[in-house]
Amino acid sequence: MIISMRPHATRQEVENVKQRIQEFGFRVHSIEGEERVVIGVVGVGGDVEACLESLEATPGVEKAVRISAPYKFVSKEFRQEKTVIRVGRAEIGAENYDTNLLYSGHDAIGIGVLPATIPDASDEADAPHR
């Protein structure tokens, strides 16, 4: 998150914002200019949405901007390869579908289920012994 303080925000307002950020479990990286202070909020594990809403209502704050998407760890920007999940003898995912799925006129997500290409223990147990 990036917090832009109002021009000429008081030292007390800046300190209050820093304290509130730390109360949410994040670290503070402050950049102090001639007229304005910009605060970088770093870390994971805190409630980002609650922190963002709280900071936007804090005196001295001009704007609070989230710079990280909540779904980033599963997005294609973060992970380029396709995800395949093996469940028993089936694989879920990994197919490339050039189809837009709609359900009641809204975007939907489809899941492809294919037989797994690897043998499992039951196949090995049924094989003749050498």
Description:
- This protein has 130 residues and is of the alpha+beta class.
- It has 2 domains: 2-65, Phospho-2-dehydro-3-deoxyheptonate aldolase, domain 1 (Alpha-Beta Plaits), CATH 3.30.70.1140; 81-125, no CATH class.
- Helix content is 22%, strand content 28%.
- The chain has 3 helices and 9 strands, in the order βαββαββββββα.
- The strands form 3 sheets. A 4-stranded antiparallel β-sheet has the order 2-3-1-4, covered by helices on one side. The protein has a 3-stranded antiparallel β-sheet with strand order 5-6-9, with no helix packed on it. The protein has a two-stranded antiparallel ribbon with strand order 7-8.
- A hairpin with a 2-residue loop joins strand 7 and strand 8 (106-107).
- The N and C termini lie far apart (63 Å).
- The mean pLDDT is 77.
